[in-house]
Amino acid sequence: MQNQNSSKREIRELSDQLISQIAAGEVIERPASVVKELLENSIDAGANRIELRLEGGGIKRIVVVDNGHGISKEELPLALKRHATSKISNLFDLESVGSLGFRGEALASISSVSDLTLTSRTVGEKQAWTIDEGEIKPASGVQGTRIEVSDLFYKTPARRKFLKSEATELAHCMGVIERLAISHPDVEIVVIASGRTILSLPRSDHFDRMERMMPKSFIEAHRTVSVETTSVRLYGWVGLPMVAQPRANHQYFFVNGRFVRDKVLSHAIRQAYQDVLYGSNQPMYCLFLEIDPRQVDVNVHPTKIEVRFRESQAVHQFVFHAVEEAIAQSVVCESVREEFSQNDLEKNNVKCVTAPSYYQQKSSALVYQGVDQYLDFVSPKSAIVSDEGKNRVSIDSELDQQPQKTIAKQIPQPLGRAVGQVLGNFIIAENSSGVVLVDMHAAHERIIYERLKRSWDERGFVKQNLLIPYVFSVTATQMATYEENKNELSRLGLEVTAVSVNQLSLRAAPQILDQQIGDSGAELVRDVLDDIQKYGSSAILTEKRNEVLATMACHAAVRVNRVLTVAEMDAILRQMEETDRADQCNHGRPTWVEISAKELDSFFMRGR
Ligand SMILES: Nc1ncnc2c1ncn2[C@@H]1O[C@H](COP(=O)(O)OP(=O)(O)OP(=O)(O)O)[C@@H](O)[C@H]1O
Ligand SMILES: [Mg+2]
C-alpha cells in the first residue's frame, strides 16, 4: 500500500500567513518570546519608559506601552509585514548591527499566531493611529507605541499545548524582563501582572540596577571587573566563589547590550573560576562586553541568543584574564586593601591590587580595626617566627625576614592572631570582630599551589638539593613512567635518580617547597608519576599543569595532626592574607570561617 505522504503532490507557494507562522515557530516559543521582542522594539525606539501588563502568564494578554519615537500612520501596515524593518537596509548594515532587532520579522510572526493590535503616535502627529486586522483607525494616545497581544497561539492550538502553567510562563516572562532591565538601566520599567504591580524600576545606572536585580548573596560578595583596550571593553561584576551555587542562575552576559549565551564566553568564565569552585557549583556574574559591532556577527540564531566573534580566541583570552584577575584576590586580602589607602599599600608593599568591590562596605565583619589596639596582645614570643618553626613549616621567606613587630604595625591582620590548634587541623585565631577558624591543611595547600603557579610562570622552578636524599620504593609502572619522563620531572623541580629496580631517590625539590619534605616528598613523586601516567607526558607541563602543581601542593602542605607552634600558625595566617584565592582550597571549599563576637554571645544568650 502506498503511503499517502509519498504520493506525488503539486508544488505550491505558501501563503504569507503560513510563511509567518512557520517563521514564528522559530522565534515565538512562548509568551516570554513575545515579551522579549516587544521590549526590544521599545528600546530600539529610544523609549525611556516601558509599561508591561501581563494576564494569564502572558498567554491571555500582553500589553506593552512605551514612550519611544513611535510609528507613523503610513508605516503601520509595514511594521506588521514580514521582512520589513527600519533598522537595516543593506548588507553593510547587517554586518554592523547596532540595534537589538534587524530581521523585520518579530511583529509579523507574533501577529500570525495571536490577535495583535498596534497603536502608535509619532512626535509630529496630532493623534494616535491604530491598526487592527489591516484596518487603520484614529485612536487616543500620547507619543509612543502600544502593542496588545491577546490569545497567543489560539490560531495554532498544537503549539499552545506546549505551554506550561500560567505561573511558569509568568516566571519565564520575568526572566526576559530582568535581563533587559539589567542591560538597560536608563529605562524605567513597570510590570503589572493580573492587575498587581510586581516590578517597578526607576531610571538609574548600571550598578544600582544590578543591585536591584541580583540576589543579596551576590551583592555582598562580588568583585568589579573593568578592563578596556582600544577595541573592547569588559565591565560588570563577578560573584566570589563562596556564593557560587549548584544551579546556573544569575549568569548574565551582554554583548553590546544584548543578552547572549555563547560558548566562547561561558568557557572563558568557567576557566577563570577553574580552581576556586567547589564541585560543580556555578558562579554568578553580570558582565557587559562592548565591542565594535563589525567584530561580532549577531545574525546566527533566529532569536539572536547566540553570536559569533570574528576573533573568538582573542575575546576568549580577554574575558578569561579580566575575570580571573578580578576573582583572584581573596576576601582577607581585599579587606587589607580597603583599610589602607593606595599610598599606604605601596609604602608597605602589600600586593593587593584589584578593582574596588562593594563587598567590604557591607561586611563589617572583616574590616580590621586599629592595629595598635591589639599590638599589645601579640607577645614577642609568638610574634617572631622561630627558627624551629621555620624548619617545620615552609614559611614565606619575605615574611620570615621581617621582625614581627614591624609587620604588625604595617600590615593589618584580618585573620587575627593565632590562639591555638584543635582537632589536629584547625587553627583558632582571634581578630577584631570575633573568632576565626582556619582549615590549616587546605589553606596551606592553596598558599603553596599559588606560589608554585606563580613561580612556574615567572621563571620556572629553581631546584634545591635536599640535605639528605630521600630513598623510597615505587611500583613497576611508576618506575617505567620515571624512566620515560626524567626531563618532565626535572622541569617540575624534582631531581630523582633510580637506586634499584624498585627504588627511587629524591635529591632535589623546588626551592619554594620546604626542604624537610621527607616522607611527603616520596608521596609527592609517586603521585606526580601517577599524574604523568594518567594525563600523558605531553599534557602535564601544558594543559594539565595545574593538576600536577595541585598534587605537589597537597603533599608539600602541612599535614593534619602536625602540631604547630603559635608562630607557625600566625605565619600561615599572614601568608593567607597575601595569597590570591586564599579563601578557597584547591577544590573550591572554604579555607576559613569567622564567628563574630555577636554570634558567640548569642550562643550563650548574652544580649549585647
Ligand atoms: N515599539 C516600537 N516603536 C517604534 N517602532 C517600532 C516599535 N515596534 C516596532 N517598530 C517598527 O516596526 C518595525 C518592525 O518591527 P519588528 O520587531 O517586526 O522587526 P525589527 O525589530 O526591525 O526586527 P526583528 O524581527 O529582528 O525584531 C521595526 O523595524 C520598527 O521600525
Ligand atoms: Mg523587533
Note the main attributes of this structure.
21% strand, 608 residues, Ribosomal Protein S8, Chain: A, domain 1, eight-stranded mixed β-sheet, alpha+beta, single chain, 27 helices, binds magnesium ion, Ribosomal Protein S5, domain 2, binds adenosine-5'-triphosphate, Heat Shock Protein 90, elongated
Describe this structure in words.
By secondary structure, the protein is of the alpha+beta class. It has 3 domains: 16-201, Histidine kinase-like ATPase, C-terminal domain (Heat Shock Protein 90, 2-Layer Sandwich), CATH 3.30.565.10; 214-328, Ribosomal Protein S5, domain 2 (2-Layer Sandwich), CATH 3.30.230.10; 371-608, Ribosomal Protein S8, Chain: A, domain 1, CATH 3.30.1370.100. It is 39% helix and 21% strand. The chain has an 8-stranded mixed sheet with strand order 5-4-3-6-2-1-7-8, covered by helices on one side. A 5-stranded mixed sheet has the order 9-10-13-11-12, sandwiched between helices. Strands 16-17-18-22 form a 4-stranded antiparallel sheet. A hairpin with a 2-residue loop joins strand 20 (495-500) and strand 21.
